[in-house]
Design a protein that fits this description.
It is built from 12 helices and 9 strands. It is α/β, with parallel strands linked by helices. The strands form 2 sheets. Strands 1-9-6-2-5-3-4 form a 7-stranded mixed β-sheet, with helices on both faces. A two-stranded antiparallel ribbon has the order 7-8. The termini are far apart. About 5% of the residues have low confidence. It comes from Trichonephila clavata. This is Transmembrane protein 68. GO terms for molecular function: acyltransferase activity.
Length: about 325
Amino acid sequence: MAESSYFSNIPSNVTYDVLGRDLLDVYFQYQTAIWTVVLLTPIVAIFFLPLVMMGLVYISALYLKAYRYYYKINGYTFTPECWKPARYLLACLWDFQARFWYGYEIQGLENIPSEGPALVVFYHGSMPVDWYYLLSKTVLYKKRLICAVGDRFLFHLPAFDALIDCFQIYPGTIETCADILKKGNLLAIAPGGVREALFGDEMYPIIWGTRKGFAKVAMEAKVPIIPVFTENIREAFFTHSFGKKWLRTIYERTRIPLVPIYGGFPTKLKTFVGEPIPYDPTITPDEMATRVNEKMKDMIKTHQKLPGSVTRSVFERFQYLFKLKHS
C-alpha cells in the first residue's frame, strides 16, 4: 500500500519518534487553547454582559433623543403625548428581551390599578432590569406609565435627558412625589436606592436605613402602597464582596457609585406584585414604613431561596424552557 502524501514528504533524517513528539506537542497546545477559552469565557462574560445591558439602555436613550429631534427639525410641536409611540415601541423591545434572556414572568400585575394613583415600592437589585420589565408590562398591558424617582446621578448622565423625559423620572423630594400622585399618576420608589443596589448580597438584606420618605409621600397623597419584589434579581447582576466596606465609605462621603457590577447570566426572573397596602389615616409615616418593610421581608422569604445562587437561578431558567417545550 502506498504511503500517504503527508508521510511521503517527511525528510528521511526525521524519525517517527521525533514526529510523534511533534504531533503530541501540537495536540497539547490545541487542548490548552481550547481549555483556556472554556475557562476564560465565563470570566469575560461577567464583565462584558453588564456593558451590553448598559449599552441597550443607552441605545434606548439615543433613540428617544433622535425621535424628539425628528419632531423638532420638522417643525412639529413636541408635547408629552408625542412620547407614546416611542414608549410603546421600547416597551415591546424590552419585553421581548426579558422573555428571551430571562424567561421573565410577572405575577400580580392585576394589583396595579388601571386608573387612579398608587405608590409602587420595589426592592433594588444591583441593576434594576426588573424595573424596566415591569414598566414595559404596565405600558403594554395596563396602558399606563409608572413614573419613577431616580437617583440624582442619573440626571447627570449624557444623553439621558430624553429617557428621563419620556418615562417621567423625577428627583425624590416629598413635595414633588406627593404632587405626582395627587394628579392621579402611578409612582415608583426604591427606598434602598443605590445603597441597596451596590451593597446588598445573596441574603437579600433590606438596606433602607432610616428612610421613611416614601411613607410620608403615600400618607401625604393618601394613596395605597404596592410592594414589588423580583425573584433572583441579585443573581442576574451582582457586586463582589471584596473591598465593599472601603467602597461603601467612599460612596457615603461622595455619593459616587464606584462598585463594579458583574453578571448578566440568563437567570430566571419572576416579579411578584403584592397586594396594595391601603392608606390608613390612623397610623404615622413611621408605622407605615415599618409595615411596608415587613411586607417586603415576607415577600423575600416567600419567593426567594436564600442564600441566592447564580448556578441555581440559571438552572431554573433552563427548567422553565424545558417546561415550555413540553407544555
